Amino acid sequence: MAWDFSTEPEFQEQLDWMDTFVREEVQPLDLLWGDRAFHPLDPALRAIVDPLKQQVRERGLWACHLGPDLGARGTGR
Q: Helix, strand or coil for residue 2?
């Protein structure tokens, strides 16, 4: 019996989107403001980060590791 390690197309689409989003949107910010990673966001940085967070929410991926009892999908469980 062989194991099937393929990924469902719908989930693969999400993985591909996440990979692109992190490489193109998140990593450049880390290069610019990596030294502020653990500090509260100031208004200028919040204006950049909040729209990115909204994109993730719109894809249903915000806090996806949390369970449905906490309002998320529970994908990471």
A: coil
